[in-house]
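#structure-requests
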Amino acid sequence: MNDLSPISVPSYQDSLDAYARITPYIHRTPILTSRFLNALVGGEMFFKCENFQKAGAFKVRGACNAVFGLSDAEAARGVCTHSSGNHALSLSYAAGRRGIPCHVVMPHSAPQAKKDAVRGYGGIITECEPSTTSREAVFAEVQAKTGGNFVHPYNDPRVIAGQATCSRELIEDVPNLDAVVAPIGGGGMISGTCLTLSNIAPEIKIYAAEPDQADDAARSFRAGHIIADDAPQTIADGLKVPLKDLTWHFVKSHVTDILTASEDEIVDAMKLTWARMKIVIEPSCAVPLAVILKNKHLFAGKRTGVIITGGNVDLDRLPWMKG
């Protein structure tokens, strides 16, 4: 797991190159604040709103870097991936902008809103069972059939370099942060955050936020090696996948701690964000606020950047709806 070649680990220069490459295709997303939420925590929070990003999620950064970094010969074969949603629709968006095909494998349990968005961007979906084992097996068949270039949702240096552009914008817009908190599933966003901050602001603490019911990254962090769950159950559908070797490299090297929240705490944080900030976020994006509210002692009196990773919500299946 630790035998990574230097070539496979993206450099900070890779993230600078990524930013130049993807700028025509992404938004520089806004930073929002809330006096009410600041008062709850006793500190200042600055929310980097990737729910306003193209395709509704931060993952369009890494997807665009991968797609627009392909040679013409590589691009002619198209791209393919497996994803519970946001990477699938982001890669479909990027492929559509370049005019190449995109095949994605998605669990049948993925939110309908995300499936609709993938198809809307021109992506071709093959469904699988909601487990890592099924996802990877079905994907192998799809890739063999289509011959597309595999763009992994997170364990890909091109993707991580693209995700690193988010935290660069954050610290350019909000100086003197004490900490940054972002969700963790497979670890693409956290790895990008580590890549940026370790190079240009190493004094900033990096916290990863994870559901209690999908806490394999937290257990991996404490054990010192990857622990992978095959099919965890949580409303935070974007955080069900395990760490891989490349993302683990960044997590073990640069993350300060991984904090977890219960399902109820995640729902409460999501409702609070909708009610107080008047923005739509998905359950996975509520996990950072949930862990901050649960661990106020870590963030009181601090300036904390909070990365809201996406806003692709199935409005017919909100987590506080009954039945």
